């Protein structure tokens, strides 16, 4: 009697997404989307705070990474970095989602 999942089957690849709970791949894909949106939102909020700080003056506390990015390219570099990071992570979620849907059709 064969197992329900035959690992010698040609459709059972090394990157088979169903390794545990059936909902796990969906949760992973959705979490990538959420993290991508989070980074984009943080970038926009940080950009607006820096813009306000540049216009009004005063003091603004930054961590070392933000300070380094600000010295390299200003508020626009920080915004671009966070948006690109968010898009890369969001794209990973989109690709994973498409892969899940493709494997469900097999």
How is the topology of this model organized?
Layout: H1 24-56, H2 64-105
Helix pairs in contact: 1-2
Concise summary:
The protein has 106 residues and is mainly α. Helix content is 71%, strand content 0%. The chain has one domain (24-105).
Describe the model.
There is one protein chain. 71% of the residues lie in helices and 0% in strands. It is mostly helical and 106 residues long. It has one domain (24-105).
Give structural attributes.
106 residues, mainly alpha, 2 helices, 0% strand
Overall average residue pLDDT: 84
Largest sheet data: none
The backbone outline, from C-alpha atoms, is elongated
Order of helices and strands, N to C?
HH
Helix content: over 70%
Terminus-to-terminus distance? 23 Å
Number of domains: 1
> Which structural class is indicated by helix and strand composition?
mainly alpha
Which value, in Å, is the CA radius of gyration? 21 Å
Number of strands: 0
Uncertain parts: none
Strand content: under 5%
Question: Can you count the helices?
Answer: 2
């Amino acid at each position: 009697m064969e197992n329900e999942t035959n690992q010698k089957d040609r459709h059972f690849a090394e990157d088979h997404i169903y390794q545990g709970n059936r909902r796990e791949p969906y949760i992973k894909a959705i979490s990538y989307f959420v993290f991508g949106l989070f980074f984009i939102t943080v970038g926009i909020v940080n950009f607006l705070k820096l813009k306000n700080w540049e216009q009004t003056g005063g003091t603004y506390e930054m961590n070392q990474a933000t300070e380094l990015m600000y010295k390299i390219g200003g508020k626009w570099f920080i915004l671009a970095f966070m948006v690109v990071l968010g898009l890369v992570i969001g794209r990973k979620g989109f690709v994973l989602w498409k892969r899940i849907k493709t494997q469900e059709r097999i």
